[in-house]
Amino acid sequence: MSGILNSSIGRKFAMALSALFLMIFLLQHFIINFSSIVSADAFNNMSHFMGTNWLIQYLMQPVLIFGVMFHFIMGFVLEIKNKSARQIKYAKNNGAANSSWMSRNMIYSGLFILIFLIIHFIDFWIPEINTKYIQGDMSGLLPSGEYRYYEELVHKFQPMWRVALYCLGFVFLALHLMHGFMSAFQSVGANNKYTKALKGFGKAYAIVIPLGFIIIALVHHFNH
Amino acid sequence: MNLTLKIWRQKDANDKGKMVDYPITGIEPDMSFLEMLDVLNEALINKGEEPVAFDHDCREGICGMCSLYINGEAHGPDRGVTTCQLHMRMFNDGDTIYIEPFRAAAFPVIKDLVVDRSAFDRIQHAGGFISVNTSGNTIDANAIPVNKHDADTAFDAATCIGCGACVASCKNSSAMLFVGAKVSQFALLPQGKVEATDRVLNMVKQMDEEGFGNCTNTGACEVECPKGISLENIARMNREYLKAAFKG
């Protein structure tokens, strides 16, 4: 058990665990956001619960931040290590003959997702932390007495540049998940008779979730 | 067939090396790739030039000695073959063919297209075996019942010839398909289970020490493997390793 992160398989396992955790989080995030185009009340209620429940705020939120940071840092560490494992490059390399573009460019799709996440944090997470923990307003209410979450969400998606940037971020997320979903399962050792079905499910997940996020952003932009 | 070959020439391990162009004529489509290189070398020798050094031995696809990165792929553009089984009919008259050594920090170039793959031997020495009494009272392997599926899967893993195409094709120069195959072939059989914990820990440790990269599951190794070794073997090695590591 000691030094498992010092071994190539241990690092791969940790990378996969953080990825699986992030994919579960993403699904949860998607479900709540999707409710915003169905019912503003449902979205407000769920957002208020997530934003004020102590278990989510003080346990799950730090775990999530750790998970995100770990996944990014480990991704870069592995990339540097892997680059140094081949110092002289091939004069001609036909990567497309044996692997997908997504699988060969995880670092670039990941890098774009990181940039997107920084913007996303500035847009939503930092104002949220400011309102709740710096200003001390845990009510989640507007001066009018209504919940603020839906209003804030819609307001954010008014500028076209932000909608475009978010859509681009989701495209890179889809590309990342196209390889990442199945890769995470392979890394934890799952490769059996269910692999084919899991591959199909992974492809569907990689398209449906980011596409859903794109639809949410577009609906709020064009509806208001 | 008339071809232009772009070949990596490197005098020795310390030389910087470079790609050199060689026009070649009169190549038959029925020739193997190595025979084509023999023709080139004969011409070079006749001209008083240094022939191109490349690895080969059995020339029937079972020894794992031939290598070469041809037009951007390990063992060239054909599937399920080693370079000695690659035929010139896979190319067209007038083609330019890039011929490079397998590239990995763990596979240093010795000369031209010859690389040192002894890192694989050291990984094997670390655990790719079973300890059997061979002093005269060896137990008949067939006396232990093995289920057919496991025997077949173990055999599939055992067909790995250790050529290193997996490492050469992997964008990370990872050796996990090779080590996965070697771990799997024993892990599936009762004779191998006895030393399974130490085997996987030691082989993976040696693999990491040799400087191979980390697997990112691109699957390039599986596609380029001349023996069709499946990614399932890497998943099995991951399971074996995690089981062993958590056991302590």
From TrEMBL, chain A:
* Keyword Translocase belongs to the record: no
Spans traversing the lipid bilayer: 56-78, 106-126, 163-184, 204-222
A GO-annotated cellular component: membrane
Cite the Gene3D superfamilies for this sequence. Fumarate reductase/succinate dehydrogenase, transmembrane subunit
Known CDD domains for this protein?
SQR_TypeB_2_TM
InterPro entries assigned: Cytochrome_b-558, SQR/QFR_C/D
Q: Tell me which UniProt keywords the record has, alphabetically.
A: Membrane, Transmembrane, Transmembrane helix
Q: Give the protein name, as stated in the record.
A: Succinate dehydrogenase
Species, as recorded: Mangrovimonas yunxiaonensis
TrEMBL record, chain B:
Question: Do you know which PROSITE patterns this protein is assigned to?
Answer: 2FE2S_FER_1, 4FE4S_FER_2
Q: Name one GO molecular function term.
A: 2 iron, 2 sulfur cluster binding
A biological process from GO: aerobic respiration
The cofactors it requires, by name, are: [3Fe-4S] cluster; [2Fe-2S] cluster
* InterPro entries referenced in this protein's UniProt entry, alphabetically: 2Fe-2S_ferredoxin-like_sf, 2Fe2S_fd_BS, 4Fe4S_Fe-S-bd, Beta-grasp_dom_sf, Helical_ferredxn, SDH/FRD_Iron-Sulfur, Succ_DH/fum_Rdtase_N
Q: Which residues form the 4Fe-4S ferredoxin-type domain?
A: 151-181
Q: Which Pfam families match?
A: Fer2_3, Fer4_8
Give the source's domain of life in one word: Bacteria
Q: Which SUPFAM superfamilies match?
A: 2Fe-2S ferredoxin-like, alpha-helical ferredoxin
Q: Name the family the entry cites.
A: Belongs to the succinate dehydrogenase/fumarate reductase iron-sulfur protein family.
Name under which the protein is recorded: Fumarate reductase
* Source species of the chain: Mangrovimonas yunxiaonensis
